[in-house]
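User: Is it possible to get a 3D structure for a protein together with its bound compound? The compound here is iron/sulfur cluster. I've pasted both below.
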Amino acid sequence: MRIVVGMKWVPGTTSVRIDPKTGTLIREGVPSIVNPHDMPAVELSLRLKDKYKGEVIAISMAPPPALKGLEYLIGMGVDRGILVSDRAFAGADTLATSYVIAKTIEKINREIGKVDLVIFGQETIDSSTAHIGAQTASWLNWPYIYYVHDAKFVDSKFVVERVLEDAVEEWEVELPAIIATHMKALKPRPVRLINKIRYKVEKPIMTWTNAELKLDPRCIGLKGSPTIVSKTVNVPEVPRKKIVYTPKSGEDAAKWIIETLMKDDKASKVLMKYLSMEGEAQ
Amino acid sequence: MSSIPTRFDVVVVGAGPAGSAAAYLLAKKGFSVLLVERGKGLGDKNMFGGKVYAQPIREVWPELDKEAPIHRWVTKERISMVDGEKVLTVEYRTEKKVSFVTYLTQLTQWMIKKAEGAGALLASEVTVEEILMRDNRVVGIRSGPDVIEADAVIDAEGVNRLLLERLGLVKKLDPDTVGLGVKEVLKVGEGNIESRFGLDKKEGLAWAIVGDITKGIPGGGFIYTNKDTVSMGLVLHLSKKLLDEGSFEGHVSSLIEGFRLHPYFKPYWKDAIISEYGGHLTITDAIKFAPSRFAYPGLLIAGDAAGLLLSLGYTFRGVDYAVYSGKLAADAVEYARNNGGVNYENLQVYDDYIRKSFMYEEIMRHRGAITLMNSFELMSKYPKLLTKVMEKMFEAEYKHEVIYNSLLQALKEEGISPFNLISQAFMMVKGI
Amino acid sequence: MSQSKGEEKPIKLEDILQSDVWDVDEDPHIIVDSEKCLECPTKPCIYLCPAGCYVKAGDRVIFSYEGCVECGTCRVICPMDAVKWNYPKSGKGILYRFA
Ligand SMILES: Cc1cc2nc3c(=O)[nH]c(=O)nc-3n(C[C@H](O)[C@H](O)[C@H](O)COP(=O)(O)OP(=O)(O)OC[C@H]3O[C@@H](n4cnc5c(N)ncnc54)[C@H](O)[C@@H]3O)c2cc1C
Ligand code: SF4
Ligand code: SF4
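Assistant: Yes, that's possible. Here is the predicted structure of the complex:
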């Protein structure tokens, strides 16, 4: 099967700090990484390839530095990467981004071969919209299932498992389809030396600009993006207490937690409120 | 998958200064070279103090001065003796471009790009797990399930030599031979660097600190001025004695914070925020640390892994030694090729190259340096004498005069009799 | 985030470490046999690990690998041979930028 997996090259948000003097973000020296949510998606695509053969193509709509991320995925075992990169795509919101991605998938379908499955991560650490999978599916009119943690063929039918809070659902899906893995679905495999050598020797990377994709300028980039950011708020970090308690038993642990929370003014209020709400509901 | 090479002429493990220099020269000489580095971005695992001696590196890259990410050329050398709040500082000024300050992350990145540009194949984000031995000969490396074979492997893995230990070529790291370096990079601002340290644009300062700044643990402190930041930190010798006594006065971070807040030093970084904090081991006893041989069948050891570091208390020469040993390793491989093949008999010349190099000679000559350094306060009585000695200590492209010799020489030049100096020193020590 | 502004007080290690960047590996690269720590007379790792990865909790020592700066000190100083030490895989771990 031919699987396309999406990758976003994001700033490592845990390393973005705030200048105590100016209150602005310190961007200098913040390295970018592969969006961690995409890792289980890549892992699932590679597991499917291990099982059913075929190829995995990673795509990323991003400026050229994202090549580093595609290199990482190829290091894991992805067959090739397509960087979709053009100034005209800059400033895109999720709508314009998903449009470009959908058109990229169509182009792969036409020119490289039939795409059976597209896998995205659930969301990104730098915006957390979780839009891309659903929007791309809408553009393509393909089925979409999210929170997936496994997928397989059962009697030539494609079955995906998705995890909800209290249940695991199995869905039979008609291919081609789009799925999004949930954050902790699968542990990604490490980068392999042989794959990195292959990356350097074969350079299995293509760059597609809008000259190749030929998309209407009104539908892409800033112009194709109706989203407006009206306001941003700085939420200060809550200082942690960092208490370590070694419980004797599970019961002891629960008791200790309740006791400790009740000793705290704020925590006890929240706790009491919640407990009284529970009482009302009954 | 058949087109993917699994055999190279040379595999270099570790893209630090040593590995990058070896890979660069070998690729330039036409060998197929695989350079394997565990880091993600280039240079992001490399951490050091801050001052690099240029001349040995120019032998590999004559374009160094023009192209490398040099923050500032060192024009001021300072040494301070700290005793509580009392500080004695000596400063020496020079115009010569002998050493420069930079971030090792940036310098290494530059070197790796040079190696790649020359045709070495860089595989980053890959940790080598094993150097492979067959019939008493190193034949390649392994990472995960992947094996790559080579005529020669150059081990440039740095001070923390997991691979050589696993091979059984060196013993587990002995605390008596290494020290822990901790460092803070403080964002001071470009203009502030110049005004506070009394420097011109492009001019830099290297500052060594000895005394109780390490709270009784043998070692010392350092300060280097980068473009708009200051690198400052401590090196603490990890002796068995220290570990046995276990008498720590607090966490190491409290030592470096004590240094940062020392009343004499803190005005230099007033209002600065911490840009980075790091820790790394460094060699404190190069002779004990060195492997018994530098060349083994199929294997050459370069840089820190080979114990090639000169630590004089006031100066570290690790980066230039690493680069230079990388060059010697490349020379040895080339010699072997031109003399019948890259086999052990021919590669053994590397051992000779190292032992005859200025680096090895220097390390042997300066065995007792640190002890002598500790008594240098007696020299403060003779500022003129001291500048002479300093000149001999710092203005060296390759060879540093042994302090004792520079002292004697300077004494002679200044017409002071050693007897006089000793009696003066004695009086001083009694007076403290 | 509490960051230094040349304040007079020493900055706490956990705040100093805010200045660093990691790409944390899924698996720990260092594994500590905490049973051995119970018997360890001097527990030097508590003082000498520059990243404060070893924390004393009663007579136990709790180790967490996430903030490790990969210096190798704990490997060298542990008198009980309790530290199984490796480098992280796939380029993970500390990412120095100004070192
Ligand atoms: C606190 C401190 C201050 C210092 N100050 C100075 C100074 O001011 N001036 C100076 O000249 N020197 C200084 N040094 C010494 C200097 O940093 C070293 O001598 C120099 O970096 C050695 O270079 P190298 O290439 O041998 O090793 P390293 O720079 O350590 O490089 C080794 C490389 O190998 C990689 N590696 C290791 N194992 C593997 C593996 N298994 N697989 C793949 N990759 C691997 C590492 O990621 C690393 O990139 C200082 C050192 C310290 C700790
Ligand atoms: S030094 Fe070793 S045995 Fe002792 S507490 Fe630390 S990790 Fe445990
Ligand atoms: S390697 Fe260094 S930073 Fe990491 S846990 Fe050990 S002592 Fe701490």
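Chain C has a mean pLDDT of 91. The helical segments of chain C are 13-16, 34-39, 45-48, 73-77.
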